[in-house]
Amino acid sequence: MPKNLYILLWWGLVAVCLSGNAAAQGLMIRNYNVKDGLANATVYAAVQDKEGFIWFSTPTGVSKFDGKRFRNYSKKDGLTDNDVVKLAADSKGRVWFFTLNGLPSFYRNYAIHTGQNDTSLYIDARGQYMQYIFEDQASGIWFLNTDNRVIQYNGNKTTYDKLGAGTDLFYFLRYDNVFKPLQPYFSLSSLKDINNADQKIITSCTFPLDKQLVADIGKRRIVILNNTLYSYNVKEAICFFNGNDWGIKEEISNICIDNDNLWIGTPRALYYLKGFFKGERKLTKLLQNHYITSLLKDRDGNIWITTFGDGVYNIPYKNFYFNYLDNTNGLYSHSIFSVLKDEKSGMLLIGQNAGVLNTMDSSKRIRQFNLDTTSGRNSILSILPYKQNEVLVGADNGLFLFNTAQQRASLIKPVRTLKDVDISSGGRVKIVSKNQVITDDYNVTVEDDLLTSIVNTSDSTYYIGSNAGVFYGTDQLRALQIPGTDSALHKSVKDLKWIGGELWIGTSDEGLYVMRNNRMVKHISTADKLVSDICQQLYYDGVGRLYVATNKGVSVIDVNTKSLVRNITSNDGLMSDDIRSVYYQDGTIYIATSNGLSYFNDRNMPVDTVPPAIYLNRIRYGDSSYLPAKTFTLLYQRKASFEVEFGAIAYDLPELVEYQYNFSSDTSSGWITTMSNIVPFPDLQPETYQLQIRARKYKSNWSRPVIVTVTILPQWYQQWWARGIVILLGLLLVAFVLRYVIRRIQQGEKRKTEYNRRIAELEAKALTNQMNPHFIFNSLNSVQHLIMEKEEKQALNFLADFATLMRQMLNNSRKSHISLEEEIAFLTRYIELEKIRFANVFTYHFLLQDDLKDYTIYIPPMIIQPIVENAIKHGLAPKNGSGRLEVKLVLSGDMLYCSVDDDGIGWERANEIKSGRLIRHESTALSVIRERLQIIKSFNGSVGKLEIIDKFKSGFGNKEGTLVEILIPIVKML
Where is the signal peptide (predicted)? Predict the structure, then answer.
């Protein structure tokens, strides 16, 4: 909480104190107003609900406060009227709103309930409004309105005029064992209950109160009658406070009992009676000219003061443990440099700037003395106890002696730029200025270094602190020297203390060092939880505690264990963290700051270790908002953010509240720390998550976490079956595309294959047609030969057979395949013609495998004929004598094995005959057969073979002739 938001209300000259003494203690108080979020500067009432929230009623609605943020409600949020004049909180956590229209309404479970949205609250108010509210033992609610009619609410319905006419407030006060009031007091014009004649009324107020009456006040009802207070029950009404006896003339509008203290609110001021119920007569007048409308003490002990037109004031509970002094309640200024309390007289001495020394005696009377009137800087830097009724005062421009009994100051020694003063156990005084050590007998001047502090270890030995480190001096040497060789001695020193044979060194930027026998034995810094490494002053209390004044508060060190005891900062109640000086006496710590003096009892210093109550405020998912709950089931939204808004109820240092959250399906993962009260989780995927949120405030432990379970449900398209359908459709689409692509490829390959096959067939036919002229040429040669030999008849027969053969050959040449029977018939007619042509010089026969009879075999036409022709022309024709020709056909799997065997002159001998024509014909015929076999392979994959064997050369004994073997691809059908 920013310090400039606090103001000080002082018990000073403006206080009304019947003892005749002016008090000098202040209270730090904060004001909340419209600029902070309050609904209106006029606040009628305040109440704390079951969860811990503070509610304020105003003319423009109600405000709900958690210590840091206001949440305002008006008619647009469900109130029956904006002008809410009273509030009440019952045991079920409902906050009731009193409006001038008389319609009952309350807040519960994040919603305002009225007769419009809750039929159980519907009544006809008859133009009257509610004045008082009670709760019975069954948690039923009873209202008394301005017409003295009773309205009962039992949770199911609201009944008007429940007890009939004639019922008044005294009825509820008589039956105080049945009806518990939900307001702290009752303002009455008379105490007389006509239906209770036996009741005793004691109007005289004695002070101090007896113990029995003090005990009874806490159990009975409290009644305000003008400016007197009564303890009231059915038997008696006893006055326990009379405002006139305390100087309060105006009417009392409200009260608050705070332990042993009593707070009184009036239309003109606030009065604080500290220790009233312990018999102490201490009255403080606060908030003069403020109309106090209500007072509330919350569960933590904080005091809330609502006003008419000036907002809300809050006094934190811990500020009652502190006393404050500055220029608003008696001091010269708010900036303080030194402090000391004289043990004998009890006088408090406070050194300030402008050479002003303030004194406050045991009766809290403050006086000011101007010791140093020189120009320039002349602050009082140190105050030390000296002799009886005397203290030494070190100012910027000299050393002074102040007599506490006579309250008189005198100059002992003028010193320019005085930095520090110390007194040895024997009473010897030594001073350091910025460049000199000054004693009664001699001075030591330092040229290059800036001196800052001095501490005596005996009457004749001392240590000096400077910006370059630590020096050691003696009265004998009258010179400064560097003690030892430890490098840690060469630090910028701000202050020194000699404690039990050890030198404690406060540095300007490295924390605290401890030296023994000129060697460093301990270093304490922020790493050891020291509040700051910038030490401004060291103070030893003589009982084992060293106080380190820094720019961020005070650190308390145990000098025996050399460990940190605790830190004290403005968060604990100090007026500032900029600490100049510390003093301790009889359990009270005095801390001088740049913003005033704070002093308090060290043993009663409050430490709030109770964790804050954490709450959920709003849940958002996407564009929708939800009221807080422990479980949420939400339908997945793409790129939507799940956002949680939460807070903690903390009225003391709410700005120091920090949060931790854990949000995952794995609750064992680490906590994330944040100062923000809104945490977003973007794009949550369908799953169940657990959100845990906890908080802690200054010096407290972590609170128990609030747990929220969040289930993000998948959309239909995220369900397993939907995903399965999508995957299946995707696979089908891929399969369809692949099938389409494959079919296109197959069709393309099929077209390409068909094209290639067609080309191959055409090439085969072309080769077949190429053989036809060859055969015709040879046949015509034979006819020519017969005519020349005068064999006309035989030539005619030959021509007739040749014509038949040609017709058969022409038919076969149009086909890609012919049957084996057709091929054998064709070969037979051809061989017969060749026998005629060569005068029957050879015989022939066909050998067919029996399995061939079981199938219809198709082979390419004109593929065997050229081999037979070569056998006759080049093997048998040149032979002397008759020859033999054998054609053998055997089925070999999907191939037809054909061998043409002759006993002619042989392959090698035929090649030796010098007949270029024959060689050319032979070469052409065989190359054509091989090419045809290769083409057949290209379009049906069957591999044919042609092999020519010279039997004499190839190991067939003495046999002559040629054996030609050919494997012919076939088409086989049953």
Answer: 1-24
Closest residue by Cα to residue 700 from 756, 639, 775, 649: 649
Q: How far apart, in whole angstroms, are the C-alpha atoms of residue 451 and residue 170? A: 78
pLDDT for the residue 205: 92
- Which residue, 665, 554, 661, 657, is CA-closest to 613? 657
> How far apart are alpha carbons 392 and 967 in whole angstroms?
137
Report the alpha-carbon distance of residue 904 to residue 951 in Å, rounded. Answer: 10
User: Which pair of structure tokens corresponds to residue 856?
Assistant: 């219809």
Residue 974's pLDDT is what?
A: 57
Distance CA 603, CA 535 (A): 25
Encoded tokens for 394:
């070190």
Position 20 scores a pLDDT of 28
Q: Which fold has domain 614-715?
A: Immunoglobulin-like (2.60.40)
What is the reported pLDDT for 841? 84
CATH 2.130.10.10 for domain 30-190+246-319, yes or no, is yes
| pLDDT number for residue 605 | 79
The interaxial angle of helices 720-788 and 916-940, nearest 10 deg, is: 160
User: Is the CB of residue 380 less than 8 Å from the CB of residue 340?
Assistant: no
pLDDT at 604: 78
Q: What is the pLDDT of residue 765?
A: 58
Residue ranges of the chain whose pLDDT lies below 50: 1-24, 914, 916-922
418, 426 in Cβ contact below 8 A? no
Name the β-bridge partners of 264: 255, 271
d(CA 924, CA 944): 18
Rounding to the nearest 10 degrees, give the CA dihedral for residues 489, 490, 491, 497: 30
Burial of 22 (0-12, 13-18, 19+ CB in 10 A): middle
The closest of 931, 891, 621, 890 to 768, measured between CA atoms, is 931
pLDDT number for residue 811 = 80
pLDDT (0 to 100) of residue 939: 58
CA distance 603 to 584: 12
Examine domains 322-416+580-604 and 614-715 and report if their fold is the same.
Answer: no
Q: Report the pLDDT value the prediction gives residue 919, as an integer from 0 to 100.
A: 45
Q: What is the pTM of this model?
A: 0.72
Query: What is the C-alpha separation between 922 and 319, in angstroms, rounded?
Result: 132
Phi then psi dihedrals of residue 80, to 5 deg: -75, -25
Tokens of 61: 């609605």
Helices (H) and strands (E) in the chain, counts: 8, 72
CA distance 249 to 58: 27
Instruction: Please count the residues of the chain.
Output: 974
CB 174 within 8 A of CB 195: yes
Domain extent listing, the chain: 30-190+246-319, 322-416+580-604, 614-715, 719-769, 771-814, 817-973
Does the 817-973 domain belong in CATH 3.30.565.10?
Answer: yes
- Tokens in use for 316? 């934190």
What is the helix, strand, coil percentage profile of the chain, to 5?
20, 40, 40
